[in-house]
Design brief:
single chain, 258 residues, alpha/beta, 2-enoyl-CoA Hydratase, Chain A, domain 1, Lyase 2-enoyl-coa Hydratase, Chain  A, domain 2, 2 domains, 12 helices, 10 strands, 16% strand, binds acetoacetyl-coenzyme A, fatty acid metabolism
Length: 258
């Protein structure tokens, strides 16, 4: 596939997607989101890829959904197209882990795209916000849902209702980002973490992702049961035998993703 709005490459065992609409600060149009979906299909099918990283530019991860494209739409346009759900849903459906490496602006749909990933690594230049209210709309790709789960109700209300941006430090304190990295090391450090993840047993990595996500979608008892059953099933893997044998024999494990 020829990509117009993103750059897709593989670095070691990591699938890397770079959002690439610099003139529009990586504003997310339909084509770009379709392209991310196609890249995800490729990475999920590629047995060599164990982790995916999405990043943007120094100035912007993404400044939101494309306002120019949306400006002329009416209710039936967005309702009929089920706008935002149709192709954006591909991102949280990905079964391999996805890290957002965010420098500069992550606003509106850009912040929502980052939150659809499994974790956010932020450059010290990152700024997060849900400024849709200034455009006479509300967040439409999870901003009112994933943000309160990440930062709590008070800060989510504050950000969505006042359109205030938060910086990387505030985002880390609030639990939105996993790490802050100096901007010039963002990609290097994110790729290194992704390569570490990709070096573990892929089925175990996928089970952990599935199990942590259960914490958001079920009661504690349901989640604990899901975790325990998944834990039991890990004992069916050759990688469990290998991982434990390697520990006992004081050597590095050689996982085979089976
Ligand atoms: N859509 C389309 N184009 C955008 C854009 C967006 N979301 N954000 C920035 N751009 C474009 C600008 O129009 C500008 O294009 P031109 O050079 O052709 O005029 C270019 O990117 C550079 O932007 P600025 O000149 O504005 O750059 P700045 O440094 O002065 O400001 C900014 C940066 C604060 C991010 C500002 O661009 C801005 O406020 N952008 C809009 C942010 C926003 O409201 N995002 C929410 C969108 S709605 C949404 O996402 C809905 C949803 O929930 C999915």
């Amino acid at each position: 596939m020829n990509y117009e709005n993103i750059i897709v490459e593989t670095r070691g065992k990591v699938g890397l997607i770079t959002l690439n609409r610099p003139k529009a600060l990586n504003a997310l149009n339909d084509t770009l989101i379709d392209e991310i979906g196609a890249a995800f299909d490729g990475f999920e099918a590629d047995e060599n890829v164990g982790c995916i990283v999405i990043t943007g530019s120094e100035k912007a991860f993404a400044a939101g959904a494309d306002i120019g494209a949306m400006a002329g739409w009416n209710f039936m346009d967005v309702y009929k197209a089920n706008y935002i759900s149709r192709n954006w849903d591909r991102i949280p459906r990905c079964r391999k882990p996805v890290i957002a490496a965010v420098a500069g602006f992550a606003l509106g749909g850009g912040c929502e795209l980052a939150m659809m990933c499994d974790m956010i690594y932020a450059a010290d230049t990152a700024k997060f916000g849900q400024p849709e209210i200034k455009l006479g709309i509300l967040p439409g790709a999870g901003g009112t849902q994933r943000l309160p789960r990440a930062v709590g109700k008070a800060k989510a209300m504050d950000m969505c209702l006042t359109a205030r941006f938060i910086d990387a430090q505030e985002a880390e304190r609030a639990g939105l980002v996993a790490r802050i990295i100096p901007a010039d090391k963002l990609l290097e450090e994110t790729l290194a973490a992704a390569e570490t993840i990709a070096g573990f047993s892929l089925p175990v990595v996928m089970m952990i992702k599935e199990s942590v996500n259960r914490a958001y979608e079920s009661s504690l008892q349901e989640g604990l049961l899901f975790e325990r059953r998944t834990f039991h099933s890990a004992f069916a893997l050759a990688d469990q035998k290998e991982g434990m044998a390697a520990f006992v024999e004081k050597r590095k494990p050689a996982f085979r993703d089976s």
